[in-house]
Specification:
The complex is a heterodimer of chains A (296) and B (276).
Chain A lengths: L4 E3 L8 H10 L6 E3 L3 H7 L1 H22 L2 E9 L5 E8 L9 H15 L4 E7 L3 E8 L2 H10 L12 H10 L8 E8 L10 H10 L2 E8 L7 H11 L3 E4 L2 H14 L8 E7 L2 H19 L2
Parallel strand pairs in A: 4-5, 4-7, 7-8, 8-9
Antiparallel strand pairs in A: 1-3, 3-10, 5-6
Chain B lengths: L1 H17 L5 H4 L6 E6 L11 H7 L3 E5 L6 E7 L12 H18 L3 E7 L3 E8 L3 H12 L9 H11 L5 E6 L9 H4 L3 E8 L1 H4 L5 E6 L6 E6 L1 H24 L3 E6 L4 H10 L1
Parallel strand pairs in B: 3-4, 3-6, 6-7, 7-10
Antiparallel strand pairs in B: 1-2, 4-5, 8-9
Helix pairs in contact in B: 1-4, 4-5
Classes of the chains: A alpha/beta (296), B alpha/beta (276).
């Protein structure tokens, strides 16, 4: 419970030194009285004097601690409106089942999600039709859980609604005010649904300022490199092709590097202030001190 | 100061000399000048039974005294800094009056009077005298004694008395008797002892409230104390326990004792104490 505890102004703790010195040296001038049996009086009041001294000491000590402001520095959290927003678009058509491509993609994407600690991530799937599996969120756990449950055929097996997926996931950014918007489109096929024309899809992406990285996997004939190149080029992204696991990993790593978020400026330290507690106790001690002092 | 002393002396003198016949030494009964121990006979005063001798021999013994009534009287002023205190009158002043009264009485009854001021050592000794001047001498010495920063060492006092006063005497000890274990047993049997405890009512029950810095008149050390009813009562309780132990010690060793408060009539209290 006490780890991460620190003081905001630790040097103020040094105030205890002048306090202790003053306790010894600068005593207030009180009414001095010659009294015959001071020895016995000392004995009679030893306990109450000790109580008062301790109360005074702890009162001042706690006040100084409160003044030094004990804080708990919690893990770094970035400001929501300034990070990256990444939409992952995955092909889940029937062809992805060959050679366990989909499983490999899932594993690599999962790693990628782990690396983008400070970003909002969304996930879209397409095959016969496209749908948004999870909208943009910081909740990495949910994304990964959902990702692990995705199967080929979840959106049909026969066709590839590539443009629709791009269009749909572009719309995810509609209400976003993030500085950097990125979509990573992964496919192993060619659009054959004709629900959304390519121009519309690209324009939508451009309208929201989305950089689209396109990845074609499998043999060069499986997907249409021209189309993917076009999408990437027009939106300011980049096209990659991968025909092996290592290559695909490389691709995601490259994207990760290219879009290294300069999140530092957006980081802030969550400070929880705890000065109220010592201060409260000090105030209670103060009340008790004056009560004991003025007690009949 | 001189005038104050004169006033004390006049009052003491008036008290002593205007009371007819009723003298302090008479109160003691048949003198103190011990002659011998003899077997108890029918008709002897039971008060004169010497219990120590009776216990040793198994037969009842009584003390025989000389009829000679000239006594050795020794008045000792225990100069402690704590006497420099008083709400009505200074304790030292009351002690002076007590000593003056005793001194006048002894002179009036033609006894040999010597006096001593003692703290941790002999401060002043006035040798035996039957002259009235001795009264003034001792009263003046006690009145003007600077008690502050002095303390009484009762063991040294006993030692001193045992070495200096070989003759059996009537000893009056005047002081405030503060201390944890005052032991007078080593002089209590050889001499006739009177312990006159001069106190102020306030010092026995300091009912004041607030923050004070109490200064000890013995070493001038300062102690910060917050006085409230609790601390005052605690102090009164502790002092009472200490005093009870003190008076128990006195009665155990046959020392006549009593308290004289600063607001009381000294002569009256003295008569009460000595009559028992």
């Amino acid at each position: 419970m006490f780890h991460n505890f620190t003081f905001e102004y630790p040097y103020l703790l040094l105030l205890t030194v002048p306090f202790l010195l003053c306790l010894k040296l600068c005593k207030p001038k009180k009414l001095a009285l010659l009294f015959p049996n001071v020895k016995l009086l000392k004995k009679a009041t030893r306990r109450s004097r000790l109580t008062l001294t301790l109360l005074k000491f702890f009162m001042v000590l706690l006040t100084i601690i409160a003044l030094a402001s004990p804080i708990k520095q919690d893990e770094i959290v970035n400001k929501e409106d300034k990070g990256y927003e990444i939409s992952l678009i995955l092909d889940a058509s029937g062809s992805m089942q060959q050679n366990n491509k989909f499983g490999i993609v899932k594993a690599i994407v999962s790693q990628f999600i782990d690396q983008r600690v400070h970003d909002k991530i969304g996930l879209s799937i397409f095959a016969d039709f496209a749908y948004v599996a999870i909208p943009l969120t910081y909740d990495k756990k949910s994304i990964k859980r959902l990702l692990s449950r995705l199967e080929v055929g979840i959106a049909g097996v026969n066709r590839t609604a590539l443009y629709e997926a791009l269009f749909l996931s572009s719309n995810l950014f509609k209400s976003s005010n993030a500085k950097e918007k990125i979509a990573i489109l992964l496919t192993d096929g060619i659009d054959n649904t004709n629900t959304i024309p390519l121009d519309v899809a690209i324009n939508t992406a451009k309208k929201y300022g989305i950089k689209v990285y396109t990845i074609g996997i499998g043999a060069p004939g499986d997907y249409n490199p021209e189309v993917l190149q076009k999408i990437a080029k027009e939106t300011g992204g980049k096209f990659f092709s991968a025909n092996s696991v290592q290559k695909l990993q490389e691709v995601y790593r490259t994207i990760d590097k290219l879009e290294k978020s300069e999140i530092k400026s957006n980081k802030y330290i969550k400070k929880s202030y705890y000065f109220a507690y010592p201060l409260t106790v000090a105030m209670l001690f103060l009340l008790l001190y004056f009560y004991l002092l003025n007690k009949e | 100061m001189e005038a104050r002393l004169q006033e004390i002396l006049i009052r003491a003198k008036k008290d002593v000399f205007s009371s007819s016949g009723d003298t302090l030494t008479k109160l003691k009964g048949d003198g103190l000048d011990f002659r011998e121990i003899k077997e108890y006979e029918f008709g002897d005063d039971v008060k004169k039974i010497n219990w120590k001798a009776t216990a040793k021999t198994g037969a009842t013994k009584v003390n025989i005294f000389n009829i000679d009534r000239e006594l050795n009287i020794l008045i000792i002023f225990l100069a402690s800094g704590s006497l420099h205190f008083g709400t009505m009158r200074l304790k030292q002043e009351v002690a002076t009056e007590t000593i003056a009264t005793l001194a006048y009485s002894s002179i009036k009854n033609n006894n040999r009077l010597s006096s001593l001021i003692f703290s941790t050592k002999e401060e002043k000794f006035i040798p035996p005298s039957k002259q009235l001047g001795a009264v003034y001498q001792i009263s003046e010495a006690v009145f003007s004694e600077d008690c502050l920063k002095k303390e009484v060492d009762y063991n040294k006092l006993c030692e001193y008395i045992n070495t200096v006063f070989k003759e059996r005497s009537l000893i009056f000890l005047v002081g405030d008797f503060y201390g944890d274990n005052i032991d007078l047993s080593s002089i209590a049997y050889k001499h006739e002892l009177y312990a006159l405890v001069v106190r102020d009512r306030f010092e026995e029950n300091p009912q004041i409230r607030g923050d004070f810095e109490f200064v000890s008149p013995i070493d001038f050390s300062h102690t910060e104390v917050t006085m409230n009813s609790q601390s005052a009562n605690e102090y009164a309780k502790l002092l009472k326990a200490q005093d009870n132990a003190l008076f128990e010690h006195f009665s155990k060793h046959g020392i006549a004792s009593g308290k004289i408060y600063t607001d009381e009539d000294v002569y009256l209290r003295l008569t009460q104490i000595i009559k028992g």
